[in-house]
Amino acid sequence: MNGEKPYIGAIDQGTTSTRFFIFDRKGEMVAMNQLEHRQIYPRPGRVEHDPIEIRDRAFDVIGNTLASSGIKARELSAIGVTNQRETTVVWNRKTGLPYYNAIVWQDTRTDEICRDLAENGDMWCFRERVGLPLSTYFSGPKIKWVIDNVEGVKADVASGDALFGNMDTWLIWWLTGGPGKGVFITDVTNAGRTMLMNINRLEWDDVMLEAMNIPAAMLPEIRSSSEIYGYTDGGGVFGAEVPVAGDLGDQQAALFGQTCFDVGNAKNTYGTGCFLLLNTGEKPVQSNFGLLTTPAYRIGDQPAVYALEGSIAIAGSLVQWIRDNLGMIKTSDEIEERAGEVEDNGGVYFVPAFSGLFAPHWRSDASGIITGLTHFASTGHLARAVLESTAFQAKEIFEAMEKDSGVPLNDLKVDGGMTRNELLMQFQADILNVPVIRPKNMETTVLGAAYAAGLATGFWKDFSELKLHWGKDRTWTPAMSAEKRDALYKGWKKAIVKSCC
Fold first, then answer.
1. Which of 26, 299, 430, 460 could hold 226 in an S-S bridge, CB 3.0 to 4.6 Å?
2. Which residues, in sequence order, are CB contacts of 482 under 8 Å at separation 6+?
3. What is the C-alpha to C-alpha distance for residues 425 and 414, in angstroms, rounded to an integer?
4. Backbone angles phi, psi at 349, to 5 degrees
């Protein structure tokens, strides 16, 4: 029955906005609506969202998309969900009300918690269990902070009334009815970002739960990335019961949407942050060079597929910072024009360690710096340094992936808003010395969630059918001498050292 329906829907709940897409059987977008939500900065280092606002935005964009397209919810084979990962919500199962704002992945308030958990100062002491370093990035320490610091939470944790979820769990719970009805689940890709899931067994890890004093009862059930979890309430914006059948963290969803189904396939997403993932197959590969070991996806009862990931906290958000905080440009797109006014960076480097440095350094004590300023430097050089910082960070991760995997990466599939910036994409190809490939369909993240949901309901048959939908839009090939490449990268390495002092 579901396989006969003409459309599939997917929610993309991101760091700055929530979107709803409707796709047809060719994987082409039929309709979309987007609404932003507030960024809350209560003090330096803290970043929060209002979970109720995000929930309401999600229902609004669904309603708006259905209304504007004339498509009925009953015509949707299923709905998939992809989400900003690690962002943490703790709420009451009876009322549905959060105890506190969502603590966003960029937030650094849990630095002391992470350091206290480290054995003999080793931030990688739990690597074999969870594939991750102790970092403010992940959900587990955020849950602990809420339990320890927000009034009333400890009592409700003890009574079993307090629930935790990343944004996927929060939205799926509400999509399927909320208090008294909602399905309380997450998938392996989101559970893998909590520091609480055993990376080998794909189950909540008792040692990690005890270390952070978090009871398993407040955690969602871990499910695959593609199966029917439940159905939407027949009322509200839907007016019909639609299967909710796909769940992938945003970067894994982008890997899936790029059809990186084979070992050695890699993609990089250029958004608020920057995230490079490499498919490593059905066994987790532990990194020796600062990368994360993470589930890439699990389809139904098939074995899970894993990835190595390099995470960059600040990419597109640095362009926004230049625009909003310095007023150097009026629109984000203007950064390319300004950077194009100069031939190179003029010796200027910008290390955007606003939330410390993520992969491969994992230095929460690092701070953002601009180095190499002289009388010669102009706003053009600074603009170029802003763009180049993303490419340099990606190169560090690219090198680490080659060392860990033992496989030379021959090209890089890219997606995300910053891939519209042709100057950046050419520089990325130059500094990596490999072709950079942009797909025709740029919305790979939400498309990945739609693919997962569609596989669960028979909307699409298998991976081979999904691969038919992927097409190449443009390729950037390297055009920089080895001498210049090496000199530029050496300058970046010096700037990194200075940011960690």
1. 299
2. 433
3. 9
4. -125, 140
